[in-house]
Amino acid sequence: MLQLDSHASCHAAEIVESDQLYFELGARTEQLGGARIAWMEGLTHLPAGAVVHRVSPDAPLNGPSLRSWESRLLELGAPLGRLYLDDAGPGAAAMLARSGYERRVETTYCGPVVGETSASFRILPVTSPDLWRRKLELHRFSTESPDGHPADPADWVDLERRKCATGRMAAFIALHEDEVVGTFAIMPGERLYRLKNLVIHAAWQRRGLGMAVLRWASALAGANGRSGICMLAVAGSAGDKLYGRAGLTLVGQRTEWTKALC
Prior knowledge:
CATH topology of the largest domain: Aminopeptidase
Strand order of the largest sheet: 4-11-5-10-9-8-7-6
Oligomer: single chain
Protein backbone atom coordinates (compact mmCIF):
# COMPACT_ATOMS: atom_id res chain seq x y z
CA MET A 1 0.00 0.00 0.00
CA LEU A 2 1.06 3.60 -0.49
CA GLN A 3 2.36 5.60 2.45
CA LEU A 4 -0.21 8.36 3.00
CA ASP A 5 -0.50 11.44 5.15
CA SER A 6 -3.51 11.69 7.46
CA HIS A 7 -5.57 13.75 5.00
CA ALA A 8 -5.01 11.32 2.14
CA SER A 9 -5.61 8.36 4.46
CA CYS A 10 -9.01 9.81 5.39
CA HIS A 11 -9.96 10.05 1.72
CA ALA A 12 -8.59 6.56 1.03
CA ALA A 13 -10.78 5.13 3.79
CA GLU A 14 -13.87 6.83 2.32
CA ILE A 15 -13.05 5.49 -1.14
CA VAL A 16 -12.71 1.93 0.16
CA GLU A 17 -15.99 2.28 2.07
CA SER A 18 -17.72 3.58 -1.09
CA ASP A 19 -16.52 0.49 -2.94
CA GLN A 20 -17.85 -1.80 -0.24
CA LEU A 21 -21.15 0.06 -0.13
CA TYR A 22 -21.46 -0.22 -3.91
CA PHE A 23 -21.28 -4.02 -3.74
CA GLU A 24 -23.99 -4.02 -1.08
CA LEU A 25 -26.44 -1.62 -2.78
CA GLY A 26 -29.54 -3.60 -3.72
CA ALA A 27 -27.81 -6.80 -2.62
CA ARG A 28 -28.38 -9.38 0.05
CA THR A 29 -25.52 -9.75 2.51
CA GLU A 30 -24.43 -12.44 4.91
CA GLN A 31 -21.52 -12.96 7.28
CA LEU A 32 -19.48 -16.10 6.75
CA GLY A 33 -16.02 -17.16 7.89
CA GLY A 34 -14.90 -13.70 8.96
CA ALA A 35 -16.09 -11.92 5.80
CA ARG A 36 -19.22 -10.51 4.22
CA ILE A 37 -20.72 -11.88 1.03
CA ALA A 38 -22.77 -9.41 -1.00
CA TRP A 39 -24.90 -10.94 -3.74
CA MET A 40 -27.62 -9.81 -6.11
CA GLU A 41 -30.52 -12.21 -6.51
CA GLY A 42 -30.71 -13.53 -10.06
CA LEU A 43 -27.44 -11.86 -11.04
CA THR A 44 -24.82 -13.93 -9.24
CA HIS A 45 -23.52 -15.14 -12.61
CA LEU A 46 -22.06 -11.65 -13.06
CA PRO A 47 -18.69 -10.99 -11.42
CA ALA A 48 -20.23 -7.85 -9.89
CA GLY A 49 -23.20 -9.87 -8.66
CA ALA A 50 -21.42 -11.83 -5.90
CA VAL A 51 -18.41 -10.51 -3.99
CA VAL A 52 -16.60 -11.52 -0.81
CA HIS A 53 -15.30 -8.47 1.04
CA ARG A 54 -14.96 -6.78 4.45
CA VAL A 55 -12.62 -9.63 5.34
CA SER A 56 -11.49 -9.76 8.98
CA PRO A 57 -7.70 -9.66 9.47
CA ASP A 58 -8.18 -12.76 11.64
CA ALA A 59 -9.92 -14.82 8.96
CA PRO A 60 -7.95 -18.07 8.40
CA LEU A 61 -7.40 -17.84 4.66
CA ASN A 62 -5.51 -21.12 4.52
CA GLY A 63 -8.32 -23.09 6.07
CA PRO A 64 -12.09 -23.35 6.35
CA SER A 65 -12.90 -19.69 5.67
CA LEU A 66 -11.70 -19.73 2.08
CA ARG A 67 -13.39 -23.07 1.39
CA SER A 68 -16.62 -21.86 2.98
CA TRP A 69 -16.67 -18.72 0.81
CA GLU A 70 -16.11 -20.74 -2.34
CA SER A 71 -18.79 -23.27 -1.42
CA ARG A 72 -21.31 -20.55 -0.65
CA LEU A 73 -20.60 -18.72 -3.90
CA LEU A 74 -21.16 -21.94 -5.83
CA GLU A 75 -24.45 -22.47 -3.97
CA LEU A 76 -25.48 -18.98 -5.04
CA GLY A 77 -24.67 -19.76 -8.68
CA ALA A 78 -21.51 -17.65 -8.92
CA PRO A 79 -18.97 -19.13 -11.36
CA LEU A 80 -16.27 -16.71 -10.21
CA GLY A 81 -14.77 -16.31 -6.77
CA ARG A 82 -14.18 -12.57 -6.34
CA LEU A 83 -12.42 -11.56 -3.15
CA TYR A 84 -11.20 -8.19 -1.89
CA LEU A 85 -8.42 -8.47 0.65
CA ASP A 86 -6.58 -5.17 0.97
CA ASP A 87 -4.24 -6.09 3.82
CA ALA A 88 -2.97 -9.44 2.55
CA GLY A 89 0.66 -9.88 3.57
CA PRO A 90 3.16 -11.91 1.53
CA GLY A 91 2.07 -15.14 3.20
CA ALA A 92 -1.64 -14.63 2.47
CA ALA A 93 -0.91 -13.50 -1.08
CA ALA A 94 1.22 -16.58 -1.73
CA MET A 95 -1.48 -18.84 -0.27
CA LEU A 96 -4.17 -17.30 -2.47
CA ALA A 97 -1.95 -17.71 -5.52
CA ARG A 98 -1.36 -21.38 -4.65
CA SER A 99 -5.13 -21.80 -4.33
CA GLY A 100 -5.58 -20.61 -7.91
CA TYR A 101 -6.46 -16.95 -7.34
CA GLU A 102 -5.24 -14.22 -9.66
CA ARG A 103 -4.37 -10.76 -8.34
CA ARG A 104 -5.56 -7.49 -9.88
CA VAL A 105 -4.50 -4.12 -8.48
CA GLU A 106 -6.95 -1.23 -8.65
CA THR A 107 -5.62 2.29 -8.10
CA THR A 108 -7.67 4.85 -6.16
CA TYR A 109 -7.81 8.54 -7.02
CA CYS A 110 -9.47 11.62 -5.59
CA GLY A 111 -9.54 15.40 -5.83
CA PRO A 112 -11.14 18.20 -7.81
CA VAL A 113 -10.81 18.36 -11.59
CA VAL A 114 -10.45 21.95 -12.70
CA GLY A 115 -11.40 23.42 -16.05
CA GLU A 116 -14.49 24.45 -17.94
CA THR A 117 -17.07 21.77 -18.64
CA SER A 118 -17.45 21.08 -22.33
CA ALA A 119 -20.43 22.54 -24.15
CA SER A 120 -20.14 19.74 -26.71
CA PHE A 121 -21.84 17.26 -24.40
CA ARG A 122 -25.08 17.19 -22.43
CA ILE A 123 -25.36 15.03 -19.35
CA LEU A 124 -28.73 13.70 -18.25
CA PRO A 125 -29.77 11.60 -15.25
CA VAL A 126 -31.22 8.24 -16.26
CA THR A 127 -34.69 8.56 -14.79
CA SER A 128 -37.09 7.10 -17.35
CA PRO A 129 -37.57 3.74 -19.08
CA ASP A 130 -36.59 5.33 -22.39
CA LEU A 131 -33.29 6.64 -20.99
CA TRP A 132 -32.52 3.26 -19.42
CA ARG A 133 -33.18 1.72 -22.86
CA ARG A 134 -30.79 4.17 -24.50
CA LYS A 135 -28.16 3.46 -21.86
CA LEU A 136 -28.53 -0.27 -22.59
CA GLU A 137 -27.99 0.38 -26.30
CA LEU A 138 -24.68 2.05 -25.52
CA HIS A 139 -23.55 -0.94 -23.47
CA ARG A 140 -24.50 -3.29 -26.32
CA PHE A 141 -22.26 -1.41 -28.73
CA SER A 142 -19.45 -0.81 -26.26
CA THR A 143 -16.09 -2.54 -26.63
CA GLU A 144 -15.36 -2.29 -22.90
CA SER A 145 -16.86 -3.64 -19.71
CA PRO A 146 -17.67 -1.23 -16.86
CA ASP A 147 -15.65 -3.21 -14.30
CA GLY A 148 -13.17 -5.05 -16.50
CA HIS A 149 -15.06 -8.35 -16.27
CA PRO A 150 -17.29 -9.80 -19.02
CA ALA A 151 -20.97 -9.02 -18.50
CA ASP A 152 -24.11 -9.33 -20.61
CA PRO A 153 -25.27 -5.74 -21.25
CA ALA A 154 -28.89 -6.38 -20.24
CA ASP A 155 -27.83 -8.05 -17.00
CA TRP A 156 -25.37 -5.25 -16.26
CA VAL A 157 -28.00 -2.55 -16.74
CA ASP A 158 -30.40 -4.54 -14.55
CA LEU A 159 -27.74 -4.60 -11.83
CA GLU A 160 -27.15 -0.84 -12.08
CA ARG A 161 -30.86 -0.09 -12.15
CA ARG A 162 -31.44 -2.06 -8.97
CA LYS A 163 -28.58 -0.28 -7.25
CA CYS A 164 -29.95 3.09 -8.33
CA ALA A 165 -33.37 2.12 -6.97
CA THR A 166 -31.87 2.26 -3.46
CA GLY A 167 -31.52 6.04 -3.83
CA ARG A 168 -27.81 5.94 -3.01
CA MET A 169 -26.53 5.88 -6.59
CA ALA A 170 -27.62 7.71 -9.73
CA ALA A 171 -26.89 6.80 -13.35
CA PHE A 172 -26.20 9.35 -16.10
CA ILE A 173 -25.75 9.39 -19.85
CA ALA A 174 -23.66 11.81 -21.89
CA LEU A 175 -25.00 12.97 -25.24
CA HIS A 176 -23.44 14.68 -28.24
CA GLU A 177 -26.35 16.30 -30.02
CA ASP A 178 -28.85 13.42 -29.61
CA GLU A 179 -26.37 10.53 -29.66
CA VAL A 180 -25.59 8.69 -26.41
CA VAL A 181 -21.80 8.67 -26.27
CA GLY A 182 -21.09 7.77 -22.65
CA THR A 183 -22.52 6.63 -19.36
CA PHE A 184 -21.48 6.64 -15.70
CA ALA A 185 -22.89 6.63 -12.19
CA ILE A 186 -22.36 8.73 -9.06
CA MET A 187 -22.56 7.81 -5.39
CA PRO A 188 -22.53 10.81 -3.02
CA GLY A 189 -20.26 10.37 0.00
CA GLU A 190 -19.46 12.43 3.07
CA ARG A 191 -16.53 14.32 1.53
CA LEU A 192 -16.40 13.07 -2.05
CA TYR A 193 -18.61 12.04 -4.93
CA ARG A 194 -17.72 8.54 -6.10
CA LEU A 195 -17.67 8.11 -9.88
CA LYS A 196 -18.59 4.58 -10.99
CA ASN A 197 -18.84 2.53 -14.17
CA LEU A 198 -17.61 5.08 -16.71
CA VAL A 199 -18.11 3.75 -20.25
CA ILE A 200 -17.38 5.75 -23.39
CA HIS A 201 -18.56 4.82 -26.86
CA ALA A 202 -15.61 3.48 -28.89
CA ALA A 203 -16.05 6.19 -31.53
CA TRP A 204 -15.78 8.88 -28.85
CA GLN A 205 -12.75 7.68 -26.97
CA ARG A 206 -9.73 10.02 -26.92
CA ARG A 207 -11.99 12.92 -27.96
CA GLY A 208 -12.24 14.65 -24.59
CA LEU A 209 -15.43 13.05 -23.29
CA GLY A 210 -13.75 11.30 -20.35
CA MET A 211 -12.22 14.57 -19.16
CA ALA A 212 -15.53 16.36 -19.70
CA VAL A 213 -17.30 13.83 -17.46
CA LEU A 214 -14.68 14.26 -14.72
CA ARG A 215 -15.01 18.05 -14.81
CA TRP A 216 -18.81 17.87 -14.79
CA ALA A 217 -18.85 15.43 -11.85
CA SER A 218 -16.27 17.51 -9.96
CA ALA A 219 -18.36 20.65 -10.45
CA LEU A 220 -21.45 18.82 -9.23
CA ALA A 221 -19.58 17.61 -6.15
CA GLY A 222 -18.34 21.13 -5.38
CA ALA A 223 -21.82 22.57 -5.79
CA ASN A 224 -23.03 20.09 -3.18
CA GLY A 225 -20.35 20.84 -0.60
CA ARG A 226 -17.89 18.05 -1.38
CA SER A 227 -14.18 18.55 -1.90
CA GLY A 228 -14.04 16.60 -5.16
CA ILE A 229 -14.58 13.23 -6.77
CA CYS A 230 -13.01 9.80 -6.36
CA MET A 231 -12.77 6.65 -8.41
CA LEU A 232 -10.92 3.38 -8.93
CA ALA A 233 -9.22 2.06 -12.03
CA VAL A 234 -7.42 -1.13 -12.96
CA ALA A 235 -3.71 -0.31 -12.77
CA GLY A 236 -2.36 0.54 -16.21
CA SER A 237 -5.81 0.81 -17.81
CA ALA A 238 -7.14 3.70 -19.90
CA GLY A 239 -9.05 4.93 -16.86
CA ASP A 240 -5.90 4.87 -14.74
CA LYS A 241 -4.12 7.05 -17.32
CA LEU A 242 -7.10 9.40 -17.67
CA TYR A 243 -7.35 10.06 -13.95
CA GLY A 244 -3.63 10.79 -13.77
CA ARG A 245 -3.88 13.26 -16.68
CA ALA A 246 -6.81 14.96 -14.95
CA GLY A 247 -4.54 15.93 -12.06
CA LEU A 248 -6.25 13.70 -9.51
CA THR A 249 -4.25 12.50 -6.52
CA LEU A 250 -3.27 8.84 -6.31
CA VAL A 251 -4.17 7.93 -2.73
CA GLY A 252 -3.96 4.14 -2.56
CA GLN A 253 -5.03 0.87 -4.07
CA ARG A 254 -7.37 -2.06 -3.65
CA THR A 255 -6.52 -5.65 -4.43
CA GLU A 256 -8.98 -7.98 -6.11
CA TRP A 257 -8.41 -11.74 -6.14
CA THR A 258 -10.40 -13.88 -8.59
CA LYS A 259 -10.67 -17.59 -9.28
CA ALA A 260 -12.87 -19.61 -11.63
CA LEU A 261 -15.01 -21.87 -9.43
CA CYS A 262 -16.56 -23.95 -12.19
